[in-house]
Amino acid sequence: MATINDVARAAGVSPSTVSYVLSGRRPISAQTRERVQAAIAELGFHPHAGARALASSRTNVLALVVPLRTDVNVPVIMQFATAVVTASRTHNHDVLLLTKDEGTAGLERVAHSTMVDALIVMDVERDDVRIQALRRLKQPSVLIGLPEDPAGIVCVDLDFEAAAAEALRHLAWHGHRKVALVGPSPAVYKRGTTYAERFLTGFTIGSAELGLETMTHPCEPDREGVRACLADIDAQLPGVTALVVHNEEALRMVLEELQASGRRVPADISVVAVCPRDVALNMPLPLTSVDIPAHDVGGLAVATAMKLLDGRPTEPVRLLPPTLVERDSTAPPAVTAG
Amino acid sequence: MATINDVARAAGVSPSTVSYVLSGRRPISAQTRERVQAAIAELGFHPHAGARALASSRTNVLALVVPLRTDVNVPVIMQFATAVVTASRTHNHDVLLLTKDEGTAGLERVAHSTMVDALIVMDVERDDVRIQALRRLKQPSVLIGLPEDPAGIVCVDLDFEAAAAEALRHLAWHGHRKVALVGPSPAVYKRGTTYAERFLTGFTIGSAELGLETMTHPCEPDREGVRACLADIDAQLPGVTALVVHNEEALRMVLEELQASGRRVPADISVVAVCPRDVALNMPLPLTSVDIPAHDVGGLAVATAMKLLDGRPTEPVRLLPPTLVERDSTAPPAVTAG
DNA sequence: CCGCTTCGTCGAAGCGCTTCGACGGCCTCC
DNA sequence: GGAGGCCGTCGAAGCGCTTCGACGAAGCGG
Fold first, then answer.
1. What angle (nearest 5°) sits at the alpha carbon of residue B295, between those of residues A86 and B164?
2. Distance from CA of B75 to the nearest CA of A (A)
């Protein structure tokens, strides 16, 4: 492997000049720069990451903590992860993958041993123990999600409260008065995953503001769970004309069960999904949906981390406004006798 | 941050002694070791990863290249990835996440800049350009998959040929004579993803050996694709009594379409799935399946990488034998007139 | 009791890079 | 036309760790 000294010799300059060509931290004449760059290309020089980290105390690596439990929606997690990786690359950073189950220890390990410049943490819970740990690190961190007390840590996420309100507004505008929320599985609520709670809050508030008759129901994402959920909804909110589904796994089954019970979407019942765009489009019929913009959130998380590293000012909490796209699963309610 | 010098001073020894306590490369008296360890604990010392990498030319980081395209089965990819991460941790390594779309450049970047000790590459295609690149690197690599010409690179994977044979053997043993393969989507074949081809090969050979009447059909994983696929199968292989499904996305829909067409599983038609265990168990009825042991394969990939790093001998290609577990979706064929 | 090995520890030399201060040479401005 | 600046480059000092050779002390056999 060529070193910076080899390059310097080949270009007839000093190592520090090569370094300055690379970093651009001092002016270098066009001539010299070209000679150096030619030497770099010819020797196939790549700076040694460890040496660089040692000398500059910058690693150009971000830690990304992902949950590995399977009761969260895996494809969505993966969308966030890939968004973070691609965004990091555009900022000339790489990504070190940590799993949530290493907990606090994993964060401290990579931070204390200076393996990463900053941390991005997904799937934070209401009062996640990891948050105090993050506060103590010298590296900045960005959460994807919104804990109870985010003081001192920057958070980015979709504004799930607004998302719920948006879904209800759309349905109300179509004339719906009786709307049910098919939520995530009970396990998700139990864990204190705040996006579920925030959506619920938004749903409740929106419902009150719009004067709707609503109910909410968690839903286990298997055939039985979906059936039970829909049955409960029919029992507790007879004449329901619209569903908001905040549960990717259950989505397809909800549609199938509605069909099985003889109800047509959207003629007999409207459905608004809360899910990534491609999920909404890959259903038997294209669903009206509030997008979960994993790509944007991931990109924003990385951009925010970069800001922090540069010492630029940053909003402590940044919630992206939801976008609802009307597709084929919503329509005005059927006019019924009664 | 405390350095090794701080620890040395606190323990009243030289820095090199601390280093030897940490690495165990030279004998250290129990007394000294304890004093050093106490100092380490007290100061919360973590060796600086960059400095360590620079001095030892070992980073204790593995690169993992995952596909980010969505036409592969995301949850399965994620299973591999988490398996690799957890296994790496047990070997005291971390994982740097690269995406396949950075291609050859990404591999070279992390290798040349000495960010990683070894590379693990998923989703290799028949004659993947990345393979030549890997051969040129000074770091060893392990492929999850099996390219055309694996010479010089170690590969691990499930033995998909044997898996197909195993599925057929099970069905033949039950007395089935007409069996169809519902394969991955055409895109997967087109890409030259070898596991699909290997399964197909095994299916064809097994079919001949067992004297079965079979056919194979790729399947687009949406409602229409599944319908078309099943219709083709019924047309081309009338009286088919069993299906082998090698397509996680389509699996649930296949079952539903069979039911919709009035066929009961396994009374009227048997189904063997090729998928991870948990997928087989989370279907409306527990499916007889050949497991895709993502966890084992990921773990093996890491273990193999460690072997290579230690200079221990390694089999060039290691294909894990498949395991078929009989559950509720297979039974002898119905006795019909004719 | 002497010389040889083994054990436990130290000191110093790097690993490859960044960065700070220094220093010529050139331009500019009065 | 000389003082003052800026531009472009160099040299050297580290960053924090590992590792090699060296060296006393202790243990052993003859």
1. 105
2. 6
